[in-house]
From TrEMBL, chain A:
It comes from Immersiella caudata. Residues 330-501 form the JmjC domain. Residues 182-201 are annotated as: Disordered. This is JmjC domain-containing protein. InterPro entries: Cupin_8, JmjC_dom.
Automatic annotation (TrEMBL), chain B:
InterPro entries: Ran_GTPase-activating, RCC1/BLIP-II, Reg_chr_condens. This is Regulator of chromosome condensation 1/beta-lactamase-inhibitor protein II. RCC repeats lie at residues 229-280, 281-333. It comes from Immersiella caudata. GO terms for cellular component: cytoplasm. PANTHER family: REGULATOR OF CHROMOSOME CONDENSATION. SUPFAM superfamilies: RCC1/BLIP-II.
């Protein structure tokens, strides 16, 4: 325990020293007229911000060397200056389209976050006093500081970046000795600080006895045009399947392709207590979509601690209560959770099928994306009633159902025009999303604004052919590139999607 | 005259007294404090990390950190500062039709400065009297020989509310370069030229209290002042609210701002705060006080227009200015000193 403490202290101080020297080197280079090789990803943030960041790093180091009262009174200003840098870099995230945002602003955000974390960790008392916060919320805040860098900024940086953040978080978790426990109802502070964190493998039986998510489904749509279900194919068999359609492959469910993954067995994602144990007792922050569907006007996104998300929106389940306006549907959707939480990544495997050579877009080659270096993983975790509106993605997709069941309806890319893709809305391109709301058209949901708005062309829309399925635990749905899909969580549901090309 | 200031001082940009400099990390000011006494102040120009004060007798005074790249900008005469502007997403525009800016663009470093003449035909460029920027775009004020003024806006279409105009009302293209050409915006065929080419804010063309005399902009909020001392504002409601300016109630529609029925003498817009001087000499503020920029002491922010008491002796406040996170008041003393 002392060991992880010392390691984390050293990690914090070495990051501060690195930042200090990188900033000094950038300023030194700026004084000379010649531009040499890049010293740091921070270059280009401008002399004032580099100087300010470097000064804060330098102060942090000197405060640590002289930890007296006269330094402790200076800590609140240091913290405010780091917040100033965070707010300055964060404002660029809005000023630029994310794809055009220079990486230096994301690194500046990350390095300021690292210093802020280091300050909180190295001077816990001074910081708690400054914020009038308890030790427990201080710990939550420290985790939040680093999670924001991961989620908002993507934690770039060669010297520190994601690797530093991941290391710091696991050392912090160790040093807090927050025992992974099945009893998630007990606040972490009251747990005995005895056992070191358990690693999976030893603990199968304990997850076995802890409760699972509810399997209640308030509504289950009928299936009239089922997607074909097949047993796993060999790699070459799957390649032949994709190549066997002259107008592009059709969706298919591959059964029992994934059911040996740890997430179904030793490390059960169906158990809230297991998920809490993998999220620093639920402290880790996750991006949550609030609202019925991302095309609705009252839809928003928030960052919540995993435990808040779980306890407020998923478990205990809300099925016994009528859905009220005050409790919108919350969905952890299209989030690269496994990059943020590497320990959960070990519970799943990348299907071999992602290493095949799939065909391009069947109708519009312009939509083909540059080849991904590796399959892109996203997590989809939410309560009953989550909806992803009818849309299409520029990748082939393997959607693996890990917990609960989901309804999926699919339309061929050849029907694109009849699905009425949206245009640009509020400066954001929405052409990959249909104007039609499958749930409303079918009468499963009331229109988002209330009232009778069903809209034009519904009759024509209902004539467009489609296939549909209920994805069961362990099923893998292959969604070929360009296929439009509408996805609806029937009960508590956790899926993983793999995009590849 | 005296200069009072409050707010962000991370680079010592409120410390004009060089003797007082020390190795201590400079802290912000949370109330309006006298930071400079000097005769004949012509103008105050706050930049993110430094402040320039133009004086008749003592030349240009500065405080804070002037980045090397900005040095060519710090020796210009006072009127030049309404002729160039930069956004936070890397766009910089310079009205190079007036000396001494004519040759300046070549002296300026990256990012490349776009001459205003690439956006407007010459007949209009020559009438531009003021150029301001907000986070993702620009506004320009033109004044025709007849005295009639127009306000043009252009910028990122995602925050189109800051443009306060119908995007189809864009200035007709007559062979001059579009903004898109000028900045060589990479190939997003989805970005409509209408948003990033200057267009007239027709709501400001014919106001009851006369032509526009001043523009101010910052963050996602813009302001225009008329000859008859009325204040009009507009901006992006979502971004304004997120930054702490929700109380302002701006939208894509230009609205008159009424503060206790007072006429407005001057206005300044920061990144997330607004400072107004009324004709009766009172200062009102609204928005974020994260760094003390409102001068309200410890308050976190002001949701509505709040009067600030300024301990300024017997002087009279003549004007206001704002940096991204700080505020300035220009005070003229009564004892005959100018």
């Amino acid at each position: 325990m002392a060991c992880s403490n010392e390691k984390l202290q050293a990690l914090c101080l070495s990051a501060a020293a690195q930042i200090k020297s990188e900033c000094a080197a950038i300023l030194q280079q700026d004084k000379g007229s010649s531009k040499g090789t890049e010293i740091s990803g921070l270059e280009g943030c401008g002399e004032p911000l580099i100087q300010l960041l470097g000064r804060q790093a330098s102060q942090l180091i000197s405060f640590h060397q002289d930890d007296s009262f006269s330094t402790s009174v200076k800590i609140p200003l240091l913290l405010r200056r780091l917040d100033d840098i965070l707010s300055e870099s964060y404002s660029r995230f809005y000023a630029y389209l994310f794809k055009d945002l220079p990486v230096r602003w994301r690194q500046l955000y990350t390095d300021a976050s690292i210093l802020k974390f280091a300050l909180s960790y190295l001077f816990p008392d001074a910081r708690s006093a400054a914020l009038e916060a308890s030790k427990e919320t201080a710990l939550d805040d420290m985790v939040k500081t680093l999670d924001l860098a991961l989620i908002l900024a993507g934690a770039p940086g060669e010297q520190r970046g994601r690797l530093w953040v991941d290391t710091a978080l696991s050392l912090l978790e160790e040093s807090c000795s927050v025992a992974e426990s099945t009893q998630d109802s007990i606040p972490p502070a009251k747990r005995p600080k005895l056992s070191p964190p358990n690693r999976y493998g030893k603990t199968v039986s304990r997850w076995h006895t802890s409760p699972s998510f509810s399997t209640h489904e308030p509504f289950t749509p009928p299936i009239n045009h089922p997607v074909r279900r097949i047993a796993p194919l060999s790699l070459s068999g799957f390649q032949s399947y994709m190549d066997s359609f002259p107008r592009g492959p059709s969706p298919v469910i591959i059964t029992s392709l994934a059911d040996t993954w740890p997430c179904f067995n030793s490390n059960p994602w169906s158990k809230p207590s297991y998920l809490l144990s993998r999220t620093f007792s639920g402290r880790r922050l996750v991006p949550i979509e609030l609202g019925r569907s991302y095309v609705d006007t009252n839809w928003t996104q928030r960052l919540l601690p995993f435990r808040t998300f779980l306890h407020t929106y998923i478990d205990p389940p809300s099925f016994s209560l009528p859905k009220t306006k005050s409790q919108p549907t919350a969905y952890l959707a299209q989030h690269q959770l496994f990059t943020q939480l590497p320990s959960l990544r070990n519970d799943i495997l990348t299907p071999d099928y992602c290493y095949t050579a799939p065909p391009g877009h069947p109708t519009n080659p312009e939509l083909d994306q540059p080849e991904l270096d590796a399959p892109q993983l996203n997590a989809w975790f939410g309560p009953a009633g989550t909806i992803t509106p009818l849309h299409t993605d520029p990748y082939h997709n393997l959607l693996v159902q890990v917990v609960g069941r989901k309804y999926v309806r699919l339309y061929s890319p050849h029907e694109t025009e009849r699905l009425r893709p949206r245009g640009k809305e509020g400066g954001v391109e929405m052409g990959n999303t249909s104007l039609f709301d499958v749930g409303v058209v079918e009468g499963w949901d009331s229109p988002p604004g209330g009232g009778e708005e069903v809209g034009d062309g519904v009759k024509e829309f209902k004539e467009v052919p489609y296939v549909e399925c209920i994805l069961e635990e362990g099923d893998t749905l292959y969604i070929p590139i360009g296929w439009w899909h509408y996805v609806r969580g029937l009960g508590v549901s956790f899926s993983v999607s793999f995009w590849w090309n | 005259m005296e200069l009072y200031a409050t707010g962000l001082n991370a680079w010592g940009q409120l410390h004009f007294d060089k003797d007082e400099q020390s190795n201590e990390e400079p802290d912000d000011l949370s109330t309006f404090t006298r930071v400079l006494t000097v005769n004949g102040i012509e103008g105050v120009h706050p930049f993110p990390s430094y402040t320039l004060v133009h004086t008749k007798a003592s030349g240009i005074l500065s405080a804070g950190l002037i980045p090397k790249d900005d040095l060519p900008l710090t020796t210009l005469p006072h009127p030049s500062y309404s002729r160039f502007a930069q956004t936070s997403n890397g766009l910089s525009i310079i009205n190079d039709t007036h000396p001494p800016l004519t040759n300046l663009s070549s002296l300026l470093p990256q990012p490349p400065w776009i001459p205003l003449s690439t956006l407007f035909p010459p007949s209009i460029t020559s009438t531009v009297t003021q150029l301001v920027s907000y986070t993702t775009g620009f506004a320009a004020l033109t004044c025709a020989p007849s005295g009639k003024t127009q306000v043009y806006t252009w910028g990122d279409e995602r925050y189109a509310a800051c443009l306060a105009r119908d995007l189809t009302s864009t200035f007709p293209q007559t062979g001059f370069q579009t903004h898109a050409d000028a900045v060589k915006i990479e190939t997003d065929p989805h970005i409509p030229v209408e948003a990033i080419t200057p267009g007239i804010v027709t709501d400001l063309s014919d106001l009851p209290t006369g032509p526009i005399t001043k523009l101010a902009a910052g963050g996602y909020v813009l302001a225009a002042l008329t000859a008859g001392k009325d204040l009009y504002m507009w901006g992006h409601p979502g971004r304004a609210a997120a930054s702490g300016l929700g109380g302002l109630g701006v939208s894509d529609e230009v609205i008159p701002v009424v503060i206790e029925d007072s006429d407005v003498e001057d206005v300044a817009v920061g990144e997330a705060h607004v400072v107004v001087l009324t004709t009766s000499g009172e200062v009102f503020v609204i928005g974020s006080n994260s760094n003390g920029q409102l001068g309200l002491g410890g308050a976190k922010s002001a949701e509505s227009w709040t009067r600030v008491a300024v301990e300024k002796g017997d002087g009279e406040i003549a004007g206001v200015a704002a940096g991204p996170k700080n505020s300035f008041l220009l005070v003229r003393k009564h004892d005959g000193q100018r």
